Structures are given as structure tokens and as C-alpha cells.
UniProtKB/TrEMBL annotation:
Annotated protein name in UniProt: Nucleotide pyrophosphohydrolase
Entry's Gene Ontology molecular function annotations: nucleoside triphosphate diphosphatase activity
Annotated keywords: Hydrolase
Transmembrane residue ranges: none
SUPFAM superfamilies: all-alpha NTP pyrophosphatases
GO biological process: nucleoside triphosphate catabolic process
Keyword Nuclease assigned: no
């Protein structure tokens, strides 16, 4: 938990030292998350049937870090605890996707 709290503090400090909080409204952060996610996807563009991260780990890590940082900024802007909302969503998903019906299946919960 200490590492998590230290990371959150570093992310906030980075933003605050640059006076960027003024730009971090939910709309613009949602746009930024989507743009960074597209850059993550770009790391796999034209890879055909090659679905592994091999040979692109550094690029994937860099783009994924950008996505995660913007997600942390979004949670902060919306006064949401990232760990709490992730755990709440996992609980909801466990009900939607019971192991007995969803194990090994990629079908949506409405199709189980």
C-alpha cells in the first residue's frame, strides 16, 4: 500500500509542479485516456497474427504507463479512489460472469 500511496503522491506532485491541474477536467482527461490507449494499440498495428508483446515491451510499457497516469488523474479529478472502484467493479463482474458459466468463454454476460 505504501508504494501505491507514494506513486499517487508522485503523480500529483508532477502535475502540481507544472500547474497542470487546471487542465485536468474529466472531459479532457477522458479524451487523453482514449488518445493514449490508441497509442498503446498502435504498438500492435500491422502485426498480423502476432499477438505477443515480444519485441515491443518497452513501447507497450511506455504507452500503458501514460494510460495509467491519466486514469489516476481522472480518478483524482472525480474524487474517486482507484482501488475502491476497481474492487467494486470486480465484485460486479463476478456476479455477471460466474465461473461456472464463463470459464474459458469470451461471450458477453448477456450471452451466458
Amino acid at each position: 500500500m505504501r508504494d501505491y500511496e507514494e506513486t499517487i503522491a508522485r503523480v500529483r506532485a508532477f502535475r502540481d509542479q507544472r500547474d497542470w491541474a487546471q487542465f485536468h477536467n474529466p472531459k479532457d482527461l477522458a479524451i487523453s485516456i482514449s488518445l493514449e490507449a490508441a497509442e498503446l494499440l498502435e504498438a500492435f498495428q500491422w502485426s498480423g497474427s502476432d499477438v505477443s508483446v515480444e519485441g515491443r515491451t518497452d513501447r507497450v510499457a511506455e504507452e500503458l504507463a501514460d494510460v495509467l497516469i491519466y486514469c489516476l488523474y481522472m480518478a483524482d479529478a472525480c474524487d474517486l479512489d482507484p482501488l475502491q472502484i476497481v474492487n467494486r467493479k470486480l465484485e460486479a463482474n463476478a456476479k455477471k460472469y460466474p465461473v461456472s458459466l464463463s470459464r474459458g468463454s469470451s461471450r458477453k454476460y448477456t450471452e451466458l
